[in-house]
Design a protein that fits this description.
heterodimer, A: about 190 residues, mainly alpha, Fumarate Reductase Iron-sulfur Protein, Chain B, domain 2, Alpha-Beta Plaits, 2 domains, two-stranded antiparallel ribbon, two-stranded antiparallel sheet, 10 helices, 4 strands, B: about 325 residues, alpha/beta, Rossmann fold, 3 domains, 5-stranded parallel β-sheet, about 30% helix, globular
Protein backbone atom coordinates (compact mmCIF):
# COMPACT_ATOMS: atom_id res chain seq x y z
CA UNK A 1 0.00 0.00 0.00
CA UNK A 2 2.82 2.36 0.89
CA UNK A 3 3.91 4.81 -1.78
CA UNK A 4 0.83 4.57 -3.98
CA UNK A 5 -0.53 8.01 -4.86
CA UNK A 6 -4.07 8.84 -3.71
CA UNK A 7 -6.21 9.84 -6.69
CA UNK A 8 -8.97 12.21 -5.71
CA UNK A 9 -11.17 10.86 -8.50
CA UNK A 10 -11.13 7.44 -6.86
CA UNK A 11 -12.22 8.69 -3.46
CA UNK A 12 -15.74 8.15 -2.22
CA UNK A 13 -16.62 10.99 0.15
CA UNK A 14 -19.67 9.06 1.30
CA UNK A 15 -17.68 6.08 2.51
CA UNK A 16 -17.53 7.24 6.13
CA UNK A 17 -21.19 8.14 5.99
CA UNK A 18 -22.07 4.64 4.85
CA UNK A 19 -20.16 3.25 7.82
CA UNK A 20 -21.89 5.66 10.19
CA UNK A 21 -25.28 4.87 8.67
CA UNK A 22 -24.78 1.24 9.67
CA UNK A 23 -23.14 1.92 13.05
CA UNK A 24 -24.34 5.31 14.20
CA UNK A 25 -22.26 5.36 17.39
CA UNK A 26 -18.99 4.06 15.98
CA UNK A 27 -17.39 7.51 16.17
CA UNK A 28 -15.07 6.96 13.22
CA UNK A 29 -15.09 10.63 12.20
CA UNK A 30 -13.66 11.59 15.62
CA UNK A 31 -10.40 9.83 14.69
CA UNK A 32 -7.50 12.25 14.35
CA UNK A 33 -4.90 9.59 13.51
CA UNK A 34 -2.95 9.73 16.76
CA UNK A 35 -1.89 6.10 16.26
CA UNK A 36 -2.62 4.83 19.79
CA UNK A 37 -4.60 1.97 18.21
CA UNK A 38 -1.72 0.77 16.08
CA UNK A 39 0.78 1.21 18.90
CA UNK A 40 -1.16 -1.30 21.01
CA UNK A 41 -2.08 -3.73 18.22
CA UNK A 42 -0.45 -7.16 18.72
CA UNK A 43 -1.04 -8.13 15.10
CA UNK A 44 0.81 -5.01 13.96
CA UNK A 45 3.82 -6.26 15.94
CA UNK A 46 4.05 -9.25 13.62
CA UNK A 47 2.53 -7.84 10.43
CA UNK A 48 3.35 -4.13 10.23
CA UNK A 49 1.08 -3.90 7.18
CA UNK A 50 -1.92 -4.48 9.43
CA UNK A 51 -2.44 -0.92 10.66
CA UNK A 52 -5.76 0.12 12.29
CA UNK A 53 -4.80 3.80 12.18
CA UNK A 54 -4.32 3.60 8.44
CA UNK A 55 -7.62 1.84 7.89
CA UNK A 56 -9.44 4.45 9.98
CA UNK A 57 -7.76 7.15 7.92
CA UNK A 58 -8.81 5.45 4.71
CA UNK A 59 -12.42 5.38 5.87
CA UNK A 60 -12.35 9.10 6.68
CA UNK A 61 -10.64 10.00 3.43
CA UNK A 62 -13.09 7.91 1.40
CA UNK A 63 -10.57 5.37 0.10
CA UNK A 64 -13.30 2.80 -0.18
CA UNK A 65 -11.84 0.41 -2.70
CA UNK A 66 -8.39 0.32 -1.18
CA UNK A 67 -9.70 -0.22 2.35
CA UNK A 68 -12.12 -2.96 1.37
CA UNK A 69 -9.76 -4.79 -0.96
CA UNK A 70 -6.91 -4.83 1.53
CA UNK A 71 -6.35 -8.35 2.82
CA UNK A 72 -4.97 -6.85 6.01
CA UNK A 73 -8.41 -5.89 7.33
CA UNK A 74 -8.86 -9.63 7.88
CA UNK A 75 -5.75 -9.96 10.03
CA UNK A 76 -7.50 -8.39 13.05
CA UNK A 77 -7.80 -10.93 15.87
CA UNK A 78 -10.73 -9.13 17.59
CA UNK A 79 -8.84 -8.35 20.80
CA UNK A 80 -10.07 -4.74 20.70
CA UNK A 81 -7.09 -3.27 22.53
CA UNK A 82 -7.35 -0.46 19.96
CA UNK A 83 -10.90 0.32 21.07
CA UNK A 84 -10.03 0.28 24.76
CA UNK A 85 -7.12 2.65 24.31
CA UNK A 86 -8.55 5.05 21.74
CA UNK A 87 -8.67 8.56 23.34
CA UNK A 88 -11.48 9.53 20.92
CA UNK A 89 -13.56 6.48 21.84
CA UNK A 90 -13.81 5.18 18.31
CA UNK A 91 -15.68 1.85 18.39
CA UNK A 92 -13.25 -0.13 16.29
CA UNK A 93 -15.17 -3.36 16.86
CA UNK A 94 -18.21 -1.92 15.07
CA UNK A 95 -16.17 -0.25 12.33
CA UNK A 96 -14.29 -3.44 11.59
CA UNK A 97 -17.52 -5.42 11.50
CA UNK A 98 -19.02 -3.08 8.91
CA UNK A 99 -15.85 -3.09 6.81
CA UNK A 100 -15.64 -6.89 6.76
CA UNK A 101 -19.30 -7.17 5.82
CA UNK A 102 -18.97 -4.56 3.03
CA UNK A 103 -15.80 -6.23 1.75
CA UNK A 104 -17.39 -9.67 1.34
CA UNK A 105 -20.50 -8.21 -0.29
CA UNK A 106 -18.46 -6.13 -2.71
CA UNK A 107 -16.42 -9.06 -3.91
CA UNK A 108 -13.42 -8.97 -1.59
CA UNK A 109 -13.90 -12.17 0.42
CA UNK A 110 -11.62 -13.00 3.34
CA UNK A 111 -8.48 -14.91 2.39
CA UNK A 112 -9.83 -18.27 3.50
CA UNK A 113 -9.37 -21.27 1.26
CA UNK A 114 -10.19 -24.95 1.43
CA UNK A 115 -7.80 -27.35 -0.27
CA UNK A 116 -10.11 -29.96 -1.78
CA UNK A 117 -7.21 -32.35 -2.28
CA UNK A 118 -6.66 -32.48 1.48
CA UNK A 119 -10.27 -32.19 2.72
CA UNK A 120 -11.52 -35.53 4.04
CA UNK A 121 -15.09 -34.34 4.55
CA UNK A 122 -15.06 -34.88 8.31
CA UNK A 123 -17.37 -31.90 8.82
CA UNK A 124 -15.61 -30.43 11.87
CA UNK A 125 -15.31 -27.03 10.13
CA UNK A 126 -18.96 -26.87 9.14
CA UNK A 127 -20.02 -27.75 12.67
CA UNK A 128 -17.80 -25.14 14.29
CA UNK A 129 -18.27 -22.18 11.91
CA UNK A 130 -20.22 -19.51 13.83
CA UNK A 131 -21.45 -17.93 10.58
CA UNK A 132 -22.65 -21.15 8.90
CA UNK A 133 -20.31 -20.23 6.06
CA UNK A 134 -19.19 -23.79 5.34
CA UNK A 135 -21.43 -26.24 3.55
CA UNK A 136 -20.73 -29.90 3.00
CA UNK A 137 -21.34 -30.82 -0.61
CA UNK A 138 -21.08 -34.14 -2.36
CA UNK A 139 -18.58 -33.98 -5.18
CA UNK A 140 -17.61 -37.06 -7.20
CA UNK A 141 -19.25 -39.19 -4.54
CA UNK A 142 -17.17 -37.65 -1.72
CA UNK A 143 -18.25 -35.18 0.89
CA UNK A 144 -16.20 -31.99 0.70
CA UNK A 145 -16.29 -28.74 2.64
CA UNK A 146 -17.27 -25.73 0.56
CA UNK A 147 -16.80 -22.12 1.61
CA UNK A 148 -19.71 -19.70 1.14
CA UNK A 149 -17.59 -16.58 0.80
CA UNK A 150 -20.40 -14.09 1.29
CA UNK A 151 -21.10 -15.48 4.76
CA UNK A 152 -17.46 -15.92 5.85
CA UNK A 153 -16.06 -13.30 8.22
CA UNK A 154 -12.54 -14.67 8.32
CA UNK A 155 -12.70 -15.42 12.05
CA UNK A 156 -10.37 -18.41 11.64
CA UNK A 157 -12.29 -20.95 13.74
CA UNK A 158 -12.43 -23.40 10.82
CA UNK A 159 -8.69 -23.17 10.20
CA UNK A 160 -7.94 -23.86 13.84
CA UNK A 161 -10.46 -26.69 14.00
CA UNK A 162 -9.55 -28.42 10.71
CA UNK A 163 -7.53 -31.46 11.76
CA UNK A 164 -6.64 -32.35 8.18
CA UNK A 165 -4.52 -29.32 7.23
CA UNK A 166 -7.02 -28.48 4.48
CA UNK A 167 -8.09 -24.96 5.48
CA UNK A 168 -5.86 -21.95 5.25
CA UNK A 169 -6.92 -18.69 6.88
CA UNK A 170 -5.42 -15.30 6.06
CA UNK A 171 -2.35 -17.01 4.61
CA UNK A 172 -1.41 -18.04 8.14
CA UNK A 173 0.78 -21.10 8.24
CA UNK A 174 1.96 -22.76 11.44
CA UNK A 175 5.30 -21.00 11.04
CA UNK A 176 3.59 -17.61 11.16
CA UNK A 177 1.59 -18.58 14.21
CA UNK A 178 4.78 -19.69 15.95
CA UNK A 179 6.34 -16.35 15.00
CA UNK A 180 3.36 -14.58 16.55
CA UNK A 181 3.85 -16.50 19.78
CA UNK A 182 7.57 -15.89 19.83
CA UNK A 183 7.44 -12.17 18.97
CA UNK A 184 5.92 -10.97 22.26
CA UNK A 185 7.81 -13.44 24.49
CA UNK A 186 11.25 -12.87 22.94
CA UNK B 1 24.11 -58.76 -9.92
CA UNK B 2 24.39 -59.00 -6.16
CA UNK B 3 21.09 -58.73 -4.34
CA UNK B 4 20.55 -55.54 -2.33
CA UNK B 5 21.27 -56.05 1.36
CA UNK B 6 18.48 -55.38 3.82
CA UNK B 7 18.49 -55.15 7.62
CA UNK B 8 15.66 -55.15 10.16
CA UNK B 9 16.09 -53.92 13.70
CA UNK B 10 13.83 -53.36 16.68
CA UNK B 11 14.23 -50.83 19.45
CA UNK B 12 11.57 -50.02 22.10
CA UNK B 13 8.66 -51.84 20.50
CA UNK B 14 6.19 -54.63 21.14
CA UNK B 15 7.17 -56.96 18.30
CA UNK B 16 4.02 -56.16 16.32
CA UNK B 17 6.08 -54.60 13.53
CA UNK B 18 7.95 -57.89 13.15
CA UNK B 19 4.55 -59.60 12.94
CA UNK B 20 3.59 -57.15 10.22
CA UNK B 21 6.58 -58.30 8.15
CA UNK B 22 5.46 -61.91 8.61
CA UNK B 23 1.92 -60.79 7.65
CA UNK B 24 3.21 -60.21 4.14
CA UNK B 25 2.49 -63.97 3.83
CA UNK B 26 3.62 -65.32 0.43
CA UNK B 27 4.87 -61.88 -0.53
CA UNK B 28 7.58 -62.33 2.10
CA UNK B 29 9.06 -65.09 -0.10
CA UNK B 30 9.23 -62.64 -3.03
CA UNK B 31 11.00 -60.13 -0.80
CA UNK B 32 13.39 -62.80 0.47
CA UNK B 33 14.13 -63.77 -3.17
CA UNK B 34 14.84 -60.21 -4.22
CA UNK B 35 17.06 -59.16 -1.32
CA UNK B 36 19.73 -60.51 0.98
CA UNK B 37 18.81 -60.10 4.63
CA UNK B 38 22.01 -59.32 6.54
CA UNK B 39 20.60 -58.58 9.99
CA UNK B 40 17.29 -59.38 11.70
CA UNK B 41 17.67 -60.11 15.42
CA UNK B 42 14.14 -61.45 15.88
CA UNK B 43 14.41 -64.05 13.11
CA UNK B 44 18.01 -64.70 12.09
CA UNK B 45 21.20 -65.34 14.02
CA UNK B 46 23.39 -62.44 12.97
CA UNK B 47 25.44 -60.56 15.54
CA UNK B 48 26.51 -56.98 15.94
CA UNK B 49 30.00 -57.88 14.66
CA UNK B 50 28.44 -59.03 11.37
CA UNK B 51 27.02 -55.55 10.90
CA UNK B 52 30.32 -53.94 11.93
CA UNK B 53 32.12 -56.00 9.27
CA UNK B 54 30.04 -54.41 6.47
CA UNK B 55 31.29 -51.39 4.52
CA UNK B 56 29.69 -47.99 5.12
CA UNK B 57 26.52 -47.72 3.06
CA UNK B 58 26.69 -51.39 2.06
CA UNK B 59 23.20 -52.15 3.39
CA UNK B 60 20.72 -50.86 0.79
CA UNK B 61 18.01 -50.24 3.37
CA UNK B 62 17.52 -50.71 7.10
CA UNK B 63 13.97 -50.99 8.39
CA UNK B 64 14.11 -49.88 12.02
CA UNK B 65 11.07 -50.18 14.28
CA UNK B 66 10.61 -49.06 17.87
CA UNK B 67 11.40 -45.86 19.74
CA UNK B 68 14.85 -45.13 21.13
CA UNK B 69 14.78 -45.60 24.90
CA UNK B 70 18.17 -47.14 25.83
CA UNK B 71 21.86 -46.59 25.17
CA UNK B 72 22.04 -49.91 23.33
CA UNK B 73 19.30 -48.90 20.91
CA UNK B 74 21.02 -45.60 20.25
CA UNK B 75 24.34 -47.33 19.53
CA UNK B 76 22.75 -49.89 17.21
CA UNK B 77 20.76 -47.38 15.16
CA UNK B 78 23.83 -45.17 14.79
CA UNK B 79 25.81 -48.20 13.57
CA UNK B 80 23.02 -49.16 11.13
CA UNK B 81 22.85 -45.57 9.88
CA UNK B 82 26.56 -45.69 9.02
CA UNK B 83 26.22 -48.99 7.20
CA UNK B 84 22.99 -48.16 5.33
CA UNK B 85 22.23 -46.14 2.21
CA UNK B 86 18.61 -45.73 3.31
CA UNK B 87 16.98 -45.85 6.71
CA UNK B 88 13.21 -46.32 6.98
CA UNK B 89 11.48 -45.57 10.29
CA UNK B 90 9.11 -48.53 10.44
CA UNK B 91 5.91 -48.20 12.45
CA UNK B 92 4.48 -45.64 14.86
CA UNK B 93 7.18 -46.00 17.54
CA UNK B 94 10.10 -45.26 15.22
CA UNK B 95 8.03 -42.63 13.38
CA UNK B 96 6.64 -40.67 16.37
CA UNK B 97 7.57 -42.45 19.60
CA UNK B 98 4.47 -44.63 19.73
CA UNK B 99 3.12 -46.27 22.88
CA UNK B 100 6.58 -46.44 24.55
CA UNK B 101 6.73 -42.68 24.00
CA UNK B 102 3.98 -42.25 26.62
CA UNK B 103 6.80 -42.99 29.07
CA UNK B 104 7.74 -39.35 28.55
CA UNK B 105 4.96 -38.48 30.98
CA UNK B 106 7.27 -40.05 33.58
CA UNK B 107 11.00 -40.26 34.34
CA UNK B 108 13.37 -43.19 34.69
CA UNK B 109 13.09 -43.03 38.49
CA UNK B 110 9.28 -42.96 38.59
CA UNK B 111 9.08 -45.77 36.01
CA UNK B 112 11.54 -47.94 37.97
CA UNK B 113 9.72 -47.18 41.21
CA UNK B 114 6.43 -48.32 39.71
CA UNK B 115 7.69 -51.36 37.83
CA UNK B 116 10.11 -52.77 40.41
CA UNK B 117 8.43 -51.72 43.67
CA UNK B 118 4.80 -50.67 43.46
CA UNK B 119 3.19 -53.12 41.05
CA UNK B 120 0.99 -55.41 43.19
CA UNK B 121 2.45 -58.57 41.67
CA UNK B 122 6.05 -57.57 42.54
CA UNK B 123 7.75 -58.54 45.76
CA UNK B 124 10.99 -56.64 46.11
CA UNK B 125 11.68 -55.95 49.82
CA UNK B 126 15.19 -54.68 49.17
CA UNK B 127 13.95 -52.25 46.53
CA UNK B 128 16.42 -53.51 43.93
CA UNK B 129 16.29 -51.70 40.59
CA UNK B 130 18.45 -52.36 37.51
CA UNK B 131 21.93 -50.85 37.70
CA UNK B 132 24.19 -49.97 34.79
CA UNK B 133 27.11 -51.62 36.64
CA UNK B 134 26.98 -54.44 39.19
CA UNK B 135 30.10 -55.97 40.80
CA UNK B 136 29.81 -59.76 41.22
CA UNK B 137 33.14 -60.93 42.68
CA UNK B 138 34.60 -62.30 39.47
CA UNK B 139 34.00 -59.10 37.58
CA UNK B 140 31.39 -56.53 36.66
CA UNK B 141 28.06 -56.92 34.88
CA UNK B 142 26.83 -54.03 32.76
CA UNK B 143 23.46 -52.99 31.37
CA UNK B 144 22.78 -50.28 28.80
CA UNK B 145 21.59 -46.96 30.21
CA UNK B 146 17.79 -46.52 30.40
CA UNK B 147 17.09 -42.92 29.36
CA UNK B 148 14.66 -40.55 31.06
CA UNK B 149 13.27 -39.52 27.69
CA UNK B 150 12.07 -41.70 24.82
CA UNK B 151 13.13 -40.39 21.43
CA UNK B 152 11.84 -40.99 17.93
CA UNK B 153 14.23 -42.51 15.42
CA UNK B 154 14.71 -39.21 13.58
CA UNK B 155 15.59 -37.48 16.86
CA UNK B 156 18.51 -39.93 17.07
CA UNK B 157 19.73 -40.45 13.48
CA UNK B 158 18.78 -38.97 10.09
CA UNK B 159 15.83 -40.91 8.63
CA UNK B 160 15.11 -41.11 4.90
CA UNK B 161 11.51 -42.39 4.86
CA UNK B 162 8.69 -43.19 7.26
CA UNK B 163 6.32 -46.15 7.15
CA UNK B 164 3.56 -45.24 9.60
CA UNK B 165 1.11 -47.44 11.47
CA UNK B 166 0.85 -49.67 14.50
CA UNK B 167 1.89 -51.82 12.77
CA UNK B 168 2.31 -50.63 9.16
CA UNK B 169 -0.23 -52.40 6.94
CA UNK B 170 1.18 -55.08 4.58
CA UNK B 171 0.17 -53.25 1.37
CA UNK B 172 2.07 -50.12 2.40
CA UNK B 173 5.10 -52.25 3.31
CA UNK B 174 5.03 -53.95 -0.10
CA UNK B 175 4.61 -50.59 -1.88
CA UNK B 176 7.63 -49.27 0.01
CA UNK B 177 9.74 -52.36 -0.73
CA UNK B 178 8.81 -52.19 -4.43
CA UNK B 179 9.58 -48.48 -4.57
CA UNK B 180 13.00 -49.10 -3.03
CA UNK B 181 13.79 -52.06 -5.31
CA UNK B 182 12.80 -50.12 -8.43
CA UNK B 183 14.28 -46.83 -7.24
CA UNK B 184 10.92 -45.06 -7.65
CA UNK B 185 11.03 -43.23 -4.35
CA UNK B 186 9.45 -39.90 -3.48
CA UNK B 187 11.55 -37.06 -2.08
CA UNK B 188 13.49 -37.79 1.09
CA UNK B 189 11.65 -37.32 4.35
CA UNK B 190 8.34 -38.51 2.87
CA UNK B 191 5.84 -40.62 4.76
CA UNK B 192 5.10 -43.62 2.54
CA UNK B 193 1.30 -43.48 2.91
CA UNK B 194 -1.62 -41.49 1.45
CA UNK B 195 -1.75 -37.81 2.38
CA UNK B 196 -5.43 -37.36 3.22
CA UNK B 197 -7.15 -37.89 6.56
CA UNK B 198 -8.81 -41.17 7.43
CA UNK B 199 -12.38 -39.76 7.17
CA UNK B 200 -11.79 -39.71 3.40
CA UNK B 201 -11.79 -43.51 3.25
CA UNK B 202 -13.93 -44.22 6.32
CA UNK B 203 -16.69 -46.75 5.54
CA UNK B 204 -19.03 -44.68 7.74
CA UNK B 205 -18.36 -41.40 5.89
CA UNK B 206 -21.60 -41.44 3.92
CA UNK B 207 -23.75 -41.64 7.02
CA UNK B 208 -22.09 -38.74 8.78
CA UNK B 209 -24.46 -36.11 10.18
CA UNK B 210 -24.66 -32.64 8.62
CA UNK B 211 -23.66 -31.01 11.90
CA UNK B 212 -21.45 -32.80 14.37
CA UNK B 213 -21.95 -32.02 18.02
CA UNK B 214 -20.75 -33.98 21.03
CA UNK B 215 -23.21 -33.70 23.91
CA UNK B 216 -21.46 -36.20 26.14
CA UNK B 217 -18.11 -37.93 25.76
CA UNK B 218 -18.26 -41.68 26.11
CA UNK B 219 -15.53 -44.28 26.20
CA UNK B 220 -16.06 -47.28 23.90
CA UNK B 221 -16.96 -49.62 26.77
CA UNK B 222 -19.66 -47.27 28.07
CA UNK B 223 -21.86 -47.43 25.00
CA UNK B 224 -23.20 -50.06 22.63
CA UNK B 225 -21.56 -48.80 19.47
CA UNK B 226 -23.69 -48.61 16.35
CA UNK B 227 -21.53 -50.24 13.62
CA UNK B 228 -22.88 -47.86 10.95
CA UNK B 229 -22.74 -44.46 12.63
CA UNK B 230 -19.82 -42.03 12.85
CA UNK B 231 -18.07 -42.51 16.23
CA UNK B 232 -17.97 -38.78 16.90
CA UNK B 233 -21.75 -38.63 16.43
CA UNK B 234 -21.99 -41.31 19.14
CA UNK B 235 -19.84 -39.23 21.50
CA UNK B 236 -16.82 -41.50 21.21
CA UNK B 237 -13.47 -39.81 20.50
CA UNK B 238 -12.25 -40.87 17.06
CA UNK B 239 -9.05 -39.35 15.72
CA UNK B 240 -9.91 -40.21 12.10
CA UNK B 241 -10.18 -36.55 11.02
CA UNK B 242 -6.68 -35.83 12.41
CA UNK B 243 -4.98 -39.02 11.24
CA UNK B 244 -3.42 -40.08 7.97
CA UNK B 245 -5.30 -42.69 5.95
CA UNK B 246 -3.83 -45.83 4.42
CA UNK B 247 -4.39 -48.21 7.33
CA UNK B 248 -7.27 -50.04 5.64
CA UNK B 249 -9.65 -48.77 8.38
CA UNK B 250 -9.12 -52.00 10.29
CA UNK B 251 -10.11 -50.54 13.68
CA UNK B 252 -13.26 -48.91 12.27
CA UNK B 253 -14.27 -52.19 10.62
CA UNK B 254 -13.86 -53.86 14.01
CA UNK B 255 -16.20 -51.18 15.43
CA UNK B 256 -13.45 -49.34 17.31
CA UNK B 257 -12.60 -45.65 16.78
CA UNK B 258 -9.34 -44.45 15.24
CA UNK B 259 -6.64 -43.87 17.86
CA UNK B 260 -4.24 -42.08 15.54
CA UNK B 261 -1.42 -44.59 14.92
CA UNK B 262 -0.82 -43.46 11.32
CA UNK B 263 0.26 -40.05 12.56
CA UNK B 264 -0.60 -36.54 11.41
CA UNK B 265 -1.68 -35.54 7.94
CA UNK B 266 1.00 -34.00 5.72
CA UNK B 267 1.61 -30.41 6.79
CA UNK B 268 0.47 -30.89 10.40
CA UNK B 269 3.17 -30.41 13.01
CA UNK B 270 1.38 -31.65 16.11
CA UNK B 271 -1.25 -34.37 15.70
CA UNK B 272 -2.35 -34.25 19.34
CA UNK B 273 -2.99 -30.51 19.23
CA UNK B 274 -5.03 -30.97 16.05
CA UNK B 275 -7.07 -33.72 17.68
CA UNK B 276 -7.65 -31.58 20.73
CA UNK B 277 -8.73 -28.49 18.76
CA UNK B 278 -11.01 -30.64 16.62
CA UNK B 279 -12.83 -32.10 19.64
CA UNK B 280 -12.93 -28.71 21.38
CA UNK B 281 -14.59 -27.29 18.24
CA UNK B 282 -17.55 -29.67 18.34
CA UNK B 283 -17.91 -30.25 22.08
CA UNK B 284 -21.30 -29.12 23.39
CA UNK B 285 -22.17 -27.21 20.22
CA UNK B 286 -25.73 -25.94 19.75
CA UNK B 287 -26.65 -25.67 23.38
CA UNK B 288 -23.71 -23.98 25.01
CA UNK B 289 -25.77 -20.90 25.89
CA UNK B 290 -27.99 -22.91 28.22
CA UNK B 291 -25.09 -24.70 29.89
CA UNK B 292 -23.99 -23.79 33.41
CA UNK B 293 -20.33 -23.75 34.49
CA UNK B 294 -21.03 -27.07 36.19
CA UNK B 295 -22.47 -28.59 32.96
CA UNK B 296 -19.43 -27.45 31.01
CA UNK B 297 -17.02 -28.89 33.59
CA UNK B 298 -18.90 -32.18 33.55
CA UNK B 299 -18.81 -32.32 29.75
CA UNK B 300 -15.07 -31.63 29.58
CA UNK B 301 -14.27 -34.01 32.43
CA UNK B 302 -15.93 -36.75 30.40
CA UNK B 303 -12.67 -36.85 28.48
CA UNK B 304 -10.55 -39.16 30.61
CA UNK B 305 -6.78 -38.85 30.05
CA UNK B 306 -6.72 -36.19 27.29
CA UNK B 307 -2.92 -36.26 26.98
CA UNK B 308 -2.90 -40.03 26.51
CA UNK B 309 -5.88 -39.86 24.15
CA UNK B 310 -4.56 -37.22 21.78
CA UNK B 311 -0.85 -38.04 22.04
CA UNK B 312 -1.21 -41.81 22.30
CA UNK B 313 1.28 -42.43 19.50
CA UNK B 314 3.00 -39.10 19.04
CA UNK B 315 4.14 -37.58 22.33
CA UNK B 316 7.93 -37.62 21.70
CA UNK B 317 7.42 -36.19 18.18
CA UNK B 318 5.00 -33.49 19.37
CA UNK B 319 5.62 -29.92 20.45
CA UNK B 320 5.28 -31.14 24.04
CA UNK B 321 7.97 -33.86 23.68
CA UNK B 322 7.69 -34.82 27.34
CA UNK B 323 6.49 -33.80 30.79
CA UNK B 324 8.66 -31.04 32.26
CA UNK B 325 11.58 -32.47 34.24
CA UNK B 326 11.72 -31.20 37.84
Amino acid sequence: MRGKPIRLSELDPNFKLVVIAREANCGITACFSCGTCTAGCPIHEVYPQHDPRKIARMVNLGMRERALSSSYIWYCSDCWICEQRCPQEVKFSSVWDVLKDMATKEGYPPPVSIDEDMCSGCGICAASCPYSAIELRIQNGKRLAHLVTTLCRGCGVCGAACPSAAISVNFFEDEQLFAQIEAPVA
Amino acid sequence: MAKPKVAFYWCASCGGCEEAVVDLNEDLLKVADAVEIVFWPVALDFKRKDVEALRDGEIAVSFINGAVRTEEQEEMVKLLREKSSLVVAFGSCAHMGGIPGLGNFWTRDTIFQRVYNEVPSVENPEGTVPQERTGIGIGELTLPEFYDTVKTLDQTIPVDYYLPGCPPPPDLIMNAVNAILTGKLPEKGAVLAPEKALCDTCPRAERKPEKLSIKEIKRPYEVKLDPEKCFLEQGVICLGPATRSGCGETCIRANMPCRGCMGPIKGVIDQGAKGLSMIASVLGLEGEDEMTEEDIRKLINGLVDPAGTFYRFSLPASLLTRRRME
